[in-house]
UniProtKB/TrEMBL annotation:
Family under the similarity heading: Belongs to the glutathione peroxidase family.
A GO molecular-function annotation: peroxidase activity
Organism name: Pseudomonas bharatica CSV86
Sorted UniProt keywords: Oxidoreductase, Peroxidase
Name of the protein described by the UniProt record: Glutathione peroxidase
Gene3D superfamilies listed in its UniProt record: Glutaredoxin
GO biological process terms, semicolon-separated: cellular response to oxidative stress
Pfam families referenced in this protein's UniProt entry, alphabetically: GSHPx
Length: 182
């Protein structure tokens, strides 16, 4: 029965269809956590929660946005918001040494939200999370592209690198994601 539902959903082109375990397609899988031997089980950690996903890079001119992203995380975490930073060298601005990436995030900018090890976020080699984000919205066009995701694992809205974390439209999308039903 579940297989037929999945086939029917795929045939209808329903993106983000919840699989048998109740986890949306967007959150299937896991990622290695930055500067840790642990992995991030996307469904376990973020399932049913509003989420902001942002691709980052340590040597990008937008790296000061870490401060604003951390402020957003602190402001909305009490309301259930989670945040996931995914470093990437797709735009040739991330260090190959994850210790240096961790220093930028944790020491230089005081990031407390979840950070993954560097991943591919564009093209054929993109990790499943970013392939699904691209199918629901668009692939990141540069570093610090932001996706606001509702409790069902659907993209509410995506924002370019030029959108600062204190932008009213970004904040409104976060509020919408927080208000969404699980």
């Amino acid at each position: 029965m579940q297989a037929r539902l999945l086939i029917a959903a795929l045939a209808l082109g329903i993106s983000g269809f919840a699989l048998a375990d109740g986890c949306p397609a967007l959150l299937q899988g896991d990622l290695p956590k930055l500067r840790s031997k642990e992995t991030i089980d996307l469904c376990q950690q973020f399932g049913g929660k509003p989420l902001v996903v942002v691709n980052t890079a340590s040597y990008c001119g937008f790296v000061p946005q870490f401060e604003g992203l951390e402020a957003v995380y602190k402001a909305y975490h009490g309301k259930g918001l989670e945040m996931l930073g995914v470093p990437s060298n797709d735009f040739k601005q991330e260090d190959a040494d994850s210790e240096k990436t961790a220093k930028v995030c944790y020491a230089n900018y005081g990031v407390t939200f979840t950070m993954a090890e560097a991943q591919k976020v564009r093209g054929d080699g993109a990790i499943p999370l970013f392939r699904e984000l691209a199918s629901q919205s668009a692939a990141p066009k540069w570093n610090f592209y932001k996706y606001v995701i509702d409790r069902q694992g659907r993209v509410v809205e995506s924002f370019s690198s030029l959108t600062k974390p204190d932008d009213p439209k970004f904040r409104a999308a976060i509020e919408q994601a927080i208000a969404s039903k699980p």
